[in-house]
C-alpha cells in the first residue's frame, strides 16, 4: 500500500476502495458470528415468547433466503448492524449472509458520493466566479502590457 501511494504509481484509489470494502466485510462477518454465538438463545426467546412482529419477520427472513437478506441490507431501516444481529440469531446461513454482505458493500459508498456531489454543487458558483475574476485579471494585465 505504501509503494502504491507514491504519485508515479497508479492504482492507489482502487486499492483504497478494495481495502475499505474488505475491512467492512470483515467487520460484518465478525459481528455476525459474535451475535450468532452470544445471542441466539435470547433471540429465540424474544421471537417465540415476547414479540409477534419480530417472530413474523424472523420467519420471513428464514423462508426468503438470499433475496430477503439482500433487500434488507440495502434498506435504510433496520440499520445494517441491527439486521446483522437479527440475521445471525434467527438462523440465516453464514453462506447466505456472506453473499448478501459482499453484494451490499457498495451501499456504504453511496452516501459519501452523494455528499461530495452536493458539496461540488454548493461550491460551483464561487468557483466559477473566481475563475472569471482570474481570467479578467489576466486579460487586463495583457492589455496593459
Automatic annotation (TrEMBL):
Keywords: Membrane, Transmembrane, Transmembrane helix
GO CC aspect terms: endomembrane system
Location relative to the cell: Endomembrane system
Membrane topology: Multi-pass membrane protein
Residues that span the membrane, as ranges: 14-35, 56-76, 96-117
Protein name: Uncharacterized protein
Organism ancestry: Eukaryota, Fungi, Dikarya, Basidiomycota, Agaricomycotina
Amino acid at each position: 500500500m505504501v509503494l502504491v501511494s507514491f504519485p508515479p504509481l497508479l492504482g492507489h484509489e482502487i486499492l483504497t476502495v478494495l481495502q475499505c470494502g474488505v475491512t467492512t466485510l470483515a467487520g460484518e462477518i465478525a459481528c455476525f458470528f459474535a451475535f450468532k454465538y452470544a445471542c441466539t438463545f435470547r433471540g429465540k426467546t424474544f421471537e417465540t415468547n415476547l414479540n409477534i412482529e419480530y417472530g413474523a419477520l424472523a420467519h420471513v427472513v428464514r423462508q426468503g433466503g438470499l433475496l430477503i437478506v439482500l433487500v434488507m441490507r440495502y434498506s435504510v431501516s433496520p440499520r445494517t448492524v441491527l439486521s446483522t444481529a437479527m440475521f445471525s440469531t434467527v438462523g440465516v446461513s453464514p453462506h447466505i449472509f456472506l453473499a448478501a454482505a459482499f453484494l451490499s458493500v457498495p451501499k456504504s459508498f453511496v452516501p459519501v458520493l452523494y455528499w461530495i456531489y452536493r458539496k461540488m454543487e454548493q461550491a460551483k458558483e464561487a468557483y466559477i466566479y473566481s475563475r472569471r475574476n482570474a481570467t479578467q485579471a489576466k486579460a487586463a494585465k495583457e492589455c496593459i502590457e
